[in-house]
Queue: 2 jobs
Job 1
Amino acid sequence: MFAALRPLLFALDPERAHGLTIAALRTGLLPAAAPDDPILRTRLAGLDLPNPIGLAAGFDKDVLVPDAMLRLGFGFVECGSVTPLPQAGNPRPRLFRLVEDKAVINRMGFNNLGLEHAVVRLQARRGRPGTVGINLGANKDAADRSADYVTGVRAAAALASYVTINISSPNTPGLRALQDGAALADLIARVVEARGAIAVPVFVKVAPDLEKPDFTVISRAAIDGGIDGLIVSNTSISRPMLRSNFAAETGGLSGAPLAPLAMAALQHFAAATGGALPIIAAGGIASGADAYARIRAGASAVQLYSALVYAGPGLVGRIKADLAALLRRDGFASVAAAVGAG
């Protein structure tokens, strides 16, 4: 079905096409995925997952379709990014398909309906099965961006399966400065204090565009501060060789060209953390082989989004089937057994 619809979707502005996709998912008419192969069941920071394939933040910014995406076969879904106050984001056009490169460039700027709306949506699904996390951002004009994350944690931590602190979007000026040593340590301390006794994992999502010392600094701050895991990585401001006419657009690059940089960042963080923190790998994952390579490089789970733009929802099932086959081929009894194996 997606093969037939793709030309029609690609004829539309990318944001319009995405809006129609969300509307279709909200009807609830899509068929449920087949049960997962038992070999794919795993644990991540205390979370029981039916499979390690997650939906990355950015697809469902406003917690509109998490259960629909779980029905499509994702092992976990991350909604957001959500900011304390609603914001329109950057001017359009701000989303570009680089078809020749199987890539996307976005400069959305944390456009979302705000934390209050997200909290209402999370409250509405309380008691339903499935792992649904919330990705928190900071408002562009916030005087104290760390305070925005504290606000988000206080409002959403008790309602989400996990919370992600997104300090790596390239589309909010100055946001990535929160990855620097002292600023990151302060942010983590405030976020962990805000979480208090709520038993919810907190992850930090980092950029792929880092210098060598940054991997150690960020890892040390996360471990010492009590963070439960890292998401490696966000979109990139770098521009590898690209063929599309949109290659010069500003914003974060995702999709196939990001894969080498994201893999390198994963390897650096796996070495820097020494297995002390679980890592979720993201960036350029589009096949079971991609997911398997990230797991063997040290990831406990993976996330994807841009690959769905080009391959459609059937990609999730194909990735899971291929991953299960690869695990069995190499003699692994579980996903966990393969983490960091090579």
Job 2
Amino acid sequence: MNIYRCLVWPLVRHVESERAHRMTLDLLKTGLVLPPRQADDPVLATTLFGRRIPNPVGLAAGFDKNAEVPDAMLRLGFGFVEVGGVTPKSQPGNPRPRLFRLEEDHAVINRMGFNNEGLDVVAARLEQRRGRLGLVGVNLGANKDSEDRPGDYAISYARLAALCGFAVVNVSSPNTPGLRNLQGREELAALLTRLQPLHAQYRTPLLVKIAPDLAEDDIDAVAELALQYGLDGIVATNTTIARPDTLRSRHRGETGGLSGAPLRDRAEAVLKQLHGKIGNRMALIGVGGIASGEDAYARIRAGASAVQLYSAMVFEGPGLVGRIKSELAALLKRDGFRSIAEAVGKDS
């Protein structure tokens, strides 16, 4: 029985979305987080950016914007965690309400707008966890009022490189006006040119996170530039500005990025195209609509070295992580794979 669905969700669904999220973070900060009842199946162990992790199921950016609870999320059973997005200066984000649960669609729409406490606060928190086990990365954003957005990414990467396991350049959030323009070939090349010397200096793995709404030619261009500039990976994908006709929730017309189940097929298609261009020359992280072991397995077979989730937990609770891992291990063994690495890209 899913205790969360039966006992907790009927209460949580009546609490305003952002308030419920804040309550969750506060609970996690108490330290009263029960670890998983059993260790991860050895078949799930894998390597990401040269580091051994117990499983390939990660927490996507957006849940822990200010690096308040990365260790709590690792204790919940995630194989790795991505905090942020963080911008050089703190900013309040867009006006509330800005987070909407589409319960009938198992989806979420957000127009948060990179609300966060800023680089100094996040750096201080990551400094405090120096020496602790667990792979924790940071999602990097640009301030809404910035006149030099490539400079924003450079400032944050230089400051956080020694404090995180990897850094993700988020040029695909739909909630900061003009940000997605940085995904264009010329704009992205200019940004990566700015970051390349820092990447060579600090050697902290550097990735770019792209939108699911890119045209095929633009996806190919991102892949080519990622290889040209020696990136360590691509996160595919962010939320979408598309609104499928299948959406039923009364919130379906809200402005912002749509995540969750309706994004699943498109996110997987983008991942497959990237793997077709890149192969196994860098890590691809699959995000968008992952809510089961079968979803995670399909994304790995499509080319993902690891996967991330967030929206599905809103509806299924923290126990989802363990269920995904258990189902994924069973699927790998069913098909004769001895490790995650053996399954990567088998359907691409």
